[in-house]
Target: D-cysteine desulfhydrase family protein
Amino acid sequence: MSAYLHRPRSTLIDRPTPIQRLTRLEESLGRACPPIYAKRDDLMGLGGGGNKLRKLEFLIGEALAQGCDTFITTGARQSNHARLSAAAAARAGLACELILTESVAREDETYRRNGNVLLDALFGATVVRRPAGTDALAVAQARAEQLAATGRRAYVVGSGGSSPLGCLGYALCAEEIIAQEQAADLRFARIIVPNGSAGTHAGLAAGLKAAGDAPARILSFTVLAPVEAARAATLDLAGKTLALIDPARGLAGDEILVSGDQLGEGYGVPTEAMIEAVRLVARTEGLLLDPVYGGKAFAGLIAAIRQGAWHGGEPMLFIMTGGLPGLFAYEPAFRSA
Ligand SMILES: *Cc1c(COP(=O)(O)O)cnc(C)c1O
Model:
């Protein structure tokens, strides 16, 4: 861990997050189902929790070390990253400004007002809305310059907090998983994650590689970019993250596995398979996946198991990345016919 510890980090979560076996779900998927475990990165004490807090530990740490007074970031209207940035900034005593774009074509009141939107306001963030297609990062940078002219100092990070520095949060998570495997005398054949801004997959890949482990154990399901673009972005970001840890190592293209099978019509657009996955995990395990990320990635895991992939009985690890507020924003999608 020494490669990370010299960097400023603001502690936002209690680690390690638990890893739990989902035996009732396994039973419901039938005899060919391998052991399925969930890493509970939805169980974090700040702001409703979720994967962005691991990145924000490094990002807020750097913002404080630079003497910033404001944290600015970007995302979609129902961004979990925006909500957790607002919570983490509140905790750190920083002002928070969110540049949110209308990149999901939903007009219903719940999407516009509930879920993360409600929480952004509760955490005291200033929200600036822009139409779909806006270069939100450019808006954020212009705002930071405007603040600088008045003597203030802003820290800017783009959507998902997926700068190489932010991705160190998931490199650290890779070390955490390896330690948990060793303690439980287990080795996960596959580590399944959703892929949005690519930082979770990239950070895990960099962390596994730095530890001499195999990044090809990770399989992500893109929920945002088309599959080839997602794979290229993940490889690029994983390489940049690894360079912060161990510049002597590199990653090869075939070490980054991304599937496009669950993207459906695009980012934030519900699919039948996502709705089925969210319901199945809720009814068998009492656990909550979100509709934009975890629900789609879990649908990918279920589809692979039903197709008979991974019938060797080797354990699988699904990373539960949080996003519960998103469920409340997608209430119409879950109305039973
Ligand atoms: C952002 C997010 C992801 C995707 O993580 P990336 O690092 O952006 O790929 C997955 N799940 C949830 C709930 C998220 O909010």
Observations:
- Residues 50-52, 80-81, 160, 162, 194-200, 290, 293-294, 321-323 surround pyridoxal-5'-phosphate (CB under 6 Å).
- DSSP finds 13 helices and ten strands in the chain.
